Amino acid sequence: MATETLTLGKALNTGLRRALENDNKVVIMGEDVGKLGGVFRITDGLQKDFGDQRVIDTPLAESGIIGTAVGLAIRGYRPVCEIQFDGFVYPAYDQIVSQVAKMHYRSGGKLRIPMVIRIPFGGGIGAVEHHSESPEAYFAHTAGLKVVTCANPQDAYVMIQQAIASDDPIVFLEPKRRYWEKGQVDLDASLSDAYPLHSARVVRPGTDATVLAYGPMVRTCLEAATAAAEDGRELEVIDLRTLSPLDLGAVYESVKRTGRAVVVHEAPSNIGLGAELAARITEECFYSLESPVLRVTGFDTPYPAARVEEEYLPDLDRVLDAVDRTFGW
Fold first, then answer.
1. CA 124 to CA 213: how far, in whole Å?
2. How far apart are CA 82 and CA 66, in angstroms?
3. How many H-runs (helices) and E-runs (strands) does the chain carry?
């Protein structure tokens, strides 16, 4: 087994390289993805090795990137579009919702749109306006789109390849604040034997409360669980991994055991993923719940200026406070 220690960003780069090697219909396109290798260097070296016909530097026009990719996908290619920052995706929102998400339905199943839209998302890097957003609820609400997010290098390596191999359009959210964090990656992991793309995973077992997170908040919740264990409280942490469709089997099983659930995400609480999860858990696990499902989220404001960003982002203390409150009912 070929195992290496890679950053999450390098794991994505390696997964993209593997996809380009395995299928000559895979093309990568986006602003500065070629010669520069992307602003976060996720596509570093790929244009040099695969040429500018497969790793394509596009104009600064997100709608054009997505529209071109739709045509490529209809013609049998597997385009991978990079949106440079989460806040830049909105000019392409019409294309994504009106074309990408609906082409299969509109054609009565005759056309598939096998494309991946990579979006670095979330805060924590001290970026300026429009460079830190959490737009996941927009896409998860849109029928016809699948939405996934990785939280560690192993998942990044495998999930990007699984997404590219899928015949469905997938919004692939990358936690930008975690790009430089390292972990062990099994480079021989096969896509068929690996953990399924649209599935949640228990990343820390526990007995006292269930904590649900995805993307950048998974590490925060694991740190909270470690701190809680020092006080004798065992938190079960679940990495959702897929936001649409949601995989709730492991969630229901966990909550029925622990009787308590806390959902954590960076995006604002208003009509966010936490609200949907709270509703589903309440419907399915009502007689097992010892307290209401609580949410720890960003605030209902735009991401703030860099110097006060840490006041906005959910942290260990806010997660532990919510867990404490579930024991107060």
1. 16
2. 9
3. 12, 14
Question: What pLDDT is attached to residue 1?
Answer: 59
Q: Is 198 among the catalytic positions?
A: no
- Is residue 151 helix, strand or coil? coil
Element (H, E) at 43: none
| DSSP per-residue letters across 81-149 | EEPSSGGG-GGGHHHIIIIITTHHHHTTTS-----EEEEEE---S---TTS----HHHHHTSTT-EEEE
What H or E segment, with its residue span, contains residue 243?
strand 242-244
Tokens 């999930």 appear where? 159
**Cis bond upstream, residue 245 (ω within 30):** yes
Contact of 118 with 89, CB cutoff 8 Å: no
39's tokens: 């602003």
User: Quick one: tokens of 122?
Assistant: 């979330």
CA dihedral angle for residue 103, residue 15, residue 41, residue 72, rounded to 10 degrees: -30
The catalytic position among 131, 141, 198, 265 is 131
Name the nearest CA neighbour of 211 among 269, 265, 173, 249: 265
Letter string b/e over residues 236-268, b meaning 16 or more CB atoms within 10 A of that residue's CB: bbbbbbbbbebbbebbbebbebbbbbbbbbbbb
**Nearest-5° Cα angle at 136, 131 to 141:** 145
Separation of alpha carbons 143 and 325, rounded Å: 35
d(CA 240, CA 189): 20
- pTM here is 0.96
pLDDT > 70 fraction of the chain, expressed in percent and rounded: 100
Per-residue DSSP letter, 169: -
Q: What confidence tens digit (pLDDT) does each residue in 18-77 have?
A: 999 999 999 999 999 999 999 999 999 999 999 999 999 999 999 999 999 999 999 999
Other beta carbons within 10 angstroms of residue 90's beta carbon come to 16
